[in-house]
């Protein structure tokens, strides 16, 4: 009985001790509770950072400003790009049409789309064509259909310049296979032809100028390298008036070259057009295009710049927040597990989408500033502006995939691309070495016999087309059969390249992407965390609408106010 009473008393004492001391574990382990609460807050902070805009709204009532801003930005930037694209298209079309006009005006018997090169084969033809260029230049006002005009400096029209290049000295005797040549190139004295000149005496001077070396050197053709005719014409692009833009003034520097570098009996004739776009000095526009319309376009570009600056600031803040959370989580891993955070987990905190949007905002801001200067005729760099605006718009549209990635059915594409990227880069490096080897081999062996292998650039384009199954039959067919050995080599070269890249390398590349896709799909179906960071976040069971995230927000605000005091 005494033993039983003692046991009952001991149980009663245990019960009393257990009920009357409610803070026994907390008093003994206050630091553990505090650390556990900090870890839970860290989990919620990191989990909140990776939430989508809708979840963030339910968690803390935070409105999706970045999402709304990106949607607005996509719309207005696309409108800006379309407007500038139409304007740039008019500029490029005006240049191309003027180039074609100059070829028909100054190249005798020129035909569009000729397969054979525009070339001359007799001395009389060379003199005749040079005479034709000078005569057409003199009669420009009577033959042109556009507003072309001569360049004027100090109230005087700039003349047409004729210059020839030739070897300093040389004697060539193919009959007995002997020659002596001085490879130094001299430039002859420039001959000028004014706009209002007497044509017959000037033509006589031209013949004298081209043949003045004949009296001293028996074979002029062996020394002549090229003859260049240079002159400047001006024009105004009036079609922009109908599209609420001020017209630009164009300077066309025309260079007509009679090329005899090969000394093969064929002198190739080429017309180059160097274009300078300038602001017109004096202008007055009435009617459809008013100055107010131009100012409205400038204000629209300023609005885009402001929105891009706001987007840049918001995305930069998000990147900084991610880096701060990465540092905080790294300290947690070092303190509790005595190990460094892996690079894959570190990169999870650095959102590539935010960086992409930051780059696109920067490019769009620079492009919009250039566009404003083009609209106000301070600059005329249409090509540079189009590169900035086009690349910026491309990145903006690619950034939309980030928000589609919040849906699981769309997210698998993004995860596959990200997971397969390192393997794809390594695969491309190995395949690129084989590709370059075929490029160099095809250029050196097949270049003299096939037009698609004349330069390394065209070789690369041709082989890339073959990989995609394009232009395959003409590549085989157009190989010249002048050399049977090279022709047989071309068959082996093309067959091995097509077989290797289409049937092996391209199939391996597709298999690499497919395997990564299957791996990602299995991970999504299993639902198990695959990284240390995911396992750490999986222990947080708080839902976005649980209210815990709002409590963390209020506590952080209270602590900030307390620290400030």
From TrEMBL:
One of its GO terms (cellular component) is endosome membrane. One of its GO terms (molecular function) is NAADP-sensitive calcium-release channel activity. The chain crosses the membrane at residues 67-86, 294-320, 351-370, 382-404, 424-446, 492-513. It is a multi-pass membrane protein. It is found in: Cell membrane; Endosome membrane. Keywords: Cell membrane, Disulfide bond, Endosome, Ion channel, Ion transport, Membrane, Transmembrane, Transmembrane helix, Transport. Signal peptide: none annotated. It catalyses: Ca(2+)(in) = Ca(2+)(out). This is Mucolipin TRP cation channel 3.
